[in-house]
Amino acid sequence: MKYFQKLKTLVINFTKKGMTPHEISIGFAVGILVAFVPIFGTHTIIAISLSAIFRLNPIIVLLATQVSNPITYPFQLLICAEIGNIILKGYFLEITFSKDINLLSHYLWPIVTGSIILGITVSSFSYFLLKWILNKRNKKKINKEYL
User: Fold this and answer.
1) Residues ≥6 apart with Cβ < 8 Å to 99
2) More confident residue, 59 or 95
3) Cβ neighbours, 10 Å, residue 76
4) How far apart are CA 130 and CA 26, in angstroms?
5) How do residues 60-101 score in pLDDT, each as one tens digit?
6) What domain range is 116 assigned to?
């Protein structure tokens, strides 16, 4: 619970520094999209690069990439593989354990496809949700100032 309180405090501090809800939300959405890149360990490099290219706040982008961490990554990978396999082949993925290296191609394309679809979906949803929350918070703040 302390983690979410610290995250909330950090986001509120960014709004006090003059960042608009759009700037915060777009940075968060890009971070979420990066979190769904299926190559674990490259998220930080990709996040910093994209924040420099698109002139986003790197701290917000990096915070959002923390959605993908060692605890959530196996589940995220499995969900991406299932979604990708449903899109590519029309049925759920058959999980088999084998030493055959050809199984990499069996899992690779479903994971990549699922990561793209899920990343775009979740990042879009997070953009609109966070922007709505921040706009609502700003309206309450403005109403309190005028009362």
Assistant:
1) none
2) 59
3) 23
4) 9
5) 999 999 988 889 888 998 899 899 999 988 888 777 666 666
6) 2-146
